[in-house]
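Collaborator request log, item 7. Partner lab (contact: R.S.) asked for a structural prediction of Class I SAM-dependent methyltransferase to inform their binding assays.
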Amino acid sequence: MKVRNPKSRFDLRIPSHYKVLDVGGGHNPHPRANVVVDKYTNTNYHRSGDIKVLKKQEFINADGENLPFSDNEFDYVICCQVLEHVENPHQFLAELFRVGKKGYIETPSLIGEYLFPRESHKWILHEINNTLHLLDKETLGFTFGYNMTELIQDYLPTHSIGFKILERTHPNLITVRIEWENDFEYEVESQDPEVRKFFKGSWQSDWQNDFFPKRTMFQELKEATIAFKDITKSVIRSRIVKK
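Returned to partner:
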C-alpha cells in the first residue's frame, strides 16, 4: 500500500538497521543504500553521468526486471528516476515488490515530463487518487516544444534555494514520490477517459485545487520553513558524503 508522498528522496523512513537496495542508482546513488544495482554499465543514454558508487556500497550489474535477490531480501528498496525508462513496468515493479518489504519510488510527473522531456523516457506518469498511471509516450503521440531540461533538472536545483523550496512545498508538482509498504496501486495504459484526459490537451483550471490544494498563508510559511530546514540538512549531508 502507499504510505505517503515524501517531500524529497531524503525524507524517507528508513531505520538505521535496515538493509537497503537502490535499483538504478546510476550517477546519483542514494547514500543510504547498502547495495546498488544498474543495468547499463557502458552507456549513459539513460542517465546524466557515469555510474557512481559510494563508500561501503556494493555494486551489482543487473536488470531491474530480473533482480538476482531472494524474496524480501531487503528491508527497503529505493528507485529514483528509473520506472519511466523500463520496457515492462509490470515486471519491473513486481521485482521491486518481491525483493523489498518497503520502498520509495520517484519519477517525473506529467508536468515534469513536459518541462524536461527525455528521449529515453518511454512512459509519462501521473498519480490520480493514489494510483500511479503510466501511459506510453509514443502511443499518446507525446510532443513537446521548448526543452528546459538543463534549467529545471540541473541549474535551478543547484543554484536556487527558492526552487528547492518549491520542490519540497509542492513535492508532486514536477516529480511523483511514493513511499510504499509491500506494494502500491498502479495502472499501465488505462483506457478510462477520466484518466486519459489528464495526459493530452491543456491543463484545466478546475484540476488545480484537486492536485495542489490551496493553503492559508500560515500553512505556506510553515511548509516553506520546513522545506528550508530540509534543504540545510541536505547540503550538510552532501558535504559529508563528498568527504
